[in-house]
Amino acid sequence: MVILTGGIDLSVGGTVALAGCLAAGALQATGNSWLAVLAALGVGLMIGSVNGFFVSYAKLPPFIVTLATLALARGFTLVYTEGRPLLVDSPVFDMIGGGFIAGIPVPVLIVAAVYVVVGFVLNQTKFGRLIYAIGGNEQACKLSGINVERNKMLVYVWCGFLAGLSSVILTARLLSAQPTAGAGYELDAIAAVILGGTSLSGGEGGVRGTLIGAFIIGVLANGLNLLNVSPFYQDVAKGAVILAAVLMDKAFHSTADSR
Amino acid sequence: MGDNKDTPLLAMQGISKSFPGVKALDKVDFQLWPGEVHALVGENGAGKSTLIKILAGVYSMDSGETLIEGKPVDINSPRQASEYGISVVHQEFTLVPQMTVSENIMLSDMPSRPGLRFLVDKKAMASGAREILDDLGVDISVSSPVRSLTVAEQQIVEVAKALSRKTRILVMDEPTAALSNVEVDRLFNVIQALVSKGMAVVYISHKLDEIFRISDRLTVLRDGRVISSSPISHFTRNEVIKQMVGRELTGMYDKPKVDIGKPVMEVGNLLLDPMGQGISFTVHEGEVLGIAGLMGAGQIRLARALFGIERIYGGDVILKGKPMKISSPGKAVRTGIGLVTENRKEEGLVQLLSVSKNITLTVLDNVSHMGVLSHQAEASIVADKIAKLDIKTPSPKQIVMNLSGGNQQKVVLAKWLAVDPDVMIMCEPTRGIDVGAKAEIYRLIGEMACNGKAVLLISSEIPEVVGMSDRVMVMHSGKVVGELTGAECTQEAVMRLATGGSAVGA
Q: Which CATH fold would you assign to the domain B259-336+422-501?
């Protein structure tokens, strides 16, 4: 959604790591799993708000702002954990990471729910409409009397929230919080979005394509694993796929413009 | 150069050029002799810039030919134009502000050190730049960065840059738009120095005083045709004005008679500049107030200030009897003001979204409930507007980018009619659209007035302001220079005021 507004969020990986570690810390300190989940989501919301504030109200370039928050989040994570992973031992996290409801793994259900919600927001709500409009032409939106700043802010907050949510899933899957968790997530996320046909310059794209893009990235990684390709080469492959996708995005756009 | 006095330096013959829906140039002949300043005048849209762009190799002509010193030439790119010695100094500067004067002047042809071609010879660069500036008789330090210069000095650097290439034909597009009187004098000295060396200058300007001061010959363009072309001594100011505006007011401007009601918007002493002159006016229900002026005379800034985009330094705005502080476009929309921006592509529409989504962009609150859109409510508003404005689109879902200019403009209007503001500010509402669409926009302006709305019609197309407005306020370099109503509101009178003269005529 951030990319739809013509922005970018590089901080998701760092957010995932910090949220996961603080959640694990909260769990160890209080023994309350729900408090830990809230802590993770809270961290996500907070970093999202920081990003949103600097991008929309201070009018800084999103690339720089989120690069800075990425570094901040990673730094705080290392300070807090002193580089060591934190173990998580809680039935709630067990359930989130490894449970089944009606034969479907819980993480899959959560992700499916997120896609449904995002799809609904993008297509059926005023906020979703504005995301597309702002990405398409921010100036025109402003001159139509729309509060562009507030809506951009909300998009980043939402992105941070989702990063917090994914940290909960990841921590629950591993039953521990890794300070290096989420490394390269921003890359995967952006790659999925672009592969799904969302334009990096904003205004075009959707949740269905992104889901497909995410599958492609996932299948690519998994497939390379199965083929016994060294994990070192996997990033090379990913990089090449992203470059190819961006090139295609550009090619489609220039043909559209020359009409 | 120009040994033969019978051969013009430049001859453009029978130049025609069409854009979709518009014939921009129709068999235009234009000649330029060495050592002369040839002024090119005409209203906005008369074809001046198209002609210059063809000369500069930006556009290609549909038919006609260009001769330089009698020899036919093909100019297909700005680079080729420059090889033939043609340079254009644009209204917007093309200087790099952080670089020094000498770097800017010598940018296209940097001297390198002998033997080391990839190293710039800074000394040679400075002395080369110095030489050119000395030739022009100006004293600007070549080592200061361009951004520290005044606008006038930058203008001269721009000229010097053109001279660093072997320029024989210098085109200047509105060169004095941002200059003070003293600075204009200085620029004119430079121009005179250039032509005395045999160079030829094409001088485009709206300021008739300056044209009569500097030019030797004058060509008037109107609707893509040459109306006249003679030595300047054959013209009087009033004749030039008459020839420029001679377009007839056809039946297009059929504004219905509307009884003018209560004041809707009263503007008192509005300051656009801290040191400027206050602007005051009142516009009433059912009234179309035209604001005329040449491009950049301040009318667009006024519109943007009223809509909360441009900063205001003082004065007040009263809407329907209540004083208002309009600090943002959002506030403006909520208080009942709409703004049709001058460029629909950059500021009016989201090109990638559909017709329907663009129309409801201003009224998303009305078509949604608790943030969830009602597609039904949206569709009914959109269908209504498409029918009312006769927007030609295969479907409401069509992407706006694929519509013609006229229909795009109607989508912009539809977007605002959906809000139904009390005051509609329209900036250049018919720019770049075909005649048929123009007529329909005029019809809509009339309808708005009938419905008791107040319309501010801001346009640099004088026939349209005169034809559509009940009253015309004329602006010239940031100031209101007159207000015309009834019989005194003629195209000539408006043009005279807009070009800096008095309404009665010189």
A: Rossmann fold (3.40.50)
